[in-house]
Amino acid sequence: MRKRVRNVQSVGMAIVLLTGLLIGCGKSNAVNETGDQTGEAGANNKGEQVESFRFLKAPISIEIPGQHPYYDYVISKTGIDAKLETFPWNDYTQRLQTIIASGDIPELFRPAGTIDQTLITQGGALALDDLLQEYAPNLWKKFPEEVWNKVRAASDDGKIYYIPKYDSDMPGRSIIMRKDWLENVGMEVPTTLEEYVEVLKAFRDKDPNQNGQKDELPTSGREGARWMDSMFGMYGVAMFEGYPEWQVVDGQMMYAGITPNMKEALAFLHMLYKEKLLDNETFLNKSDTWNAKIQSDKVGVWFHIPYQANTVFDNLKKVNPNAELIGAPLPKVEGYDGFISQKPLAFIDYMIPKAAAEYAPTILKYLDWWYSEEAETFMIYGLENDTWVKEDGKIKYLPEKDTQEKMTLRGNGTMSALSYYDTDFFEKTSELLHGEFTNVIQQMWETARPFSRFIESDGMPNSVYNGFGDIGSHKIYQEYAAKFIIGELPIEKFDEYVELWKKSGGDEVTKKVNEWYQKSNQ
């Protein structure tokens, strides 16, 4: 999910108050035979001494087991015990703020909100330039130089303060449609705006879930006008997970939320809302509510992540055994160059606080192992003589010995510390994780690929919003978008909204965004 830029002042205040702590206070560490300090000493399941550190990851979909052979394997290969911690998405930012305020910050963590930039500007983040090349050469070489240049452009001193999450070439978002609903109403996958609207009307009127009730929602979104990117994207508006991005208009970076194209997209969404083609509870839908509607056989079209669609599919099958999903192309709107925004550098994956500098060699060695061949084999196939064996020098996978729990635990969302992903890796893991549904995921990827476009604001630091929290949090846009879509304000008031946005700091932020853009594209 996207990093939120909420509670900017409270996060900043907490970190400013703790700058001294983050810069100067570390924990006692073990000392190796050469006299160099290393990570905190611990013991493995055999009582042998190993280095360890605390590792706060992004939300994990399963409960982390206390002990597991997978942990023992990674420790045996790295000599390091990473103590995994996590929080759920709904309160991840708040919980991270709390542990920072308490001074109990882990040695490695995924930042959220503007925490990364506040740490960098206050001197609380560790510069990684030389350390990465020395202790994590595999990781360092995996990322293209242009990626590291964008990371450098995120700081005033041009140093690398974080490891980004990088999805190199995979179309990560797609229009997902109920294939069985299309068949039930006798229609094809739409390719134009007009066809798209007709499909939505059929989903509204013709009982596509065949339960005899008028309970279908043709399409649905989430609070804040989120996760409806395709309906903005067809008008050429750069959106990512429901947030307006920045895009080049007439040679200058411009906030997508104030473009003339945005005005047209909002007018279109108002029509859908008025005709009950868009879920009229969209602006009340939190993540769990939205997912529940989709998975209870109520929603015909939505926009999300293909790689995560198997969970939706599995739950749908429990409600409707005939449920089928298909990826749909972006409908063509005459006069507009539509696209789906792609952000390979959408997220910051890991930072090391300056207070944990003594742990840095240990942490980076640990991260580097995940870019090795044996780590890839582990992530994809598991452990030798458990879920795979070697025959004639090749891996023979034993699917009957594998389980969903094992695959999830060793995968990229749980134990794995990989930050670089490409289509090849996802295809390998998808086939094992999702079985026959892999074909559906690949169809979604391939359908979305021609419409996916790297957007110009990819990798832009949140520091451009410093001092302008309402701009960075998209608060003004979200308030007015909701009013325009539900009809509380006529679309003719759009220019008034634009002026308010500009006067609230939008003009100043626009200047900083263009300065960053020029710097990062030199």
TrEMBL record:
Pfam families: SBP_bac_1. InterPro entries: Bact_solute-bd_prot1, SBP. This is Extracellular solute-binding protein. It comes from Paenibacillus arenilitoris.
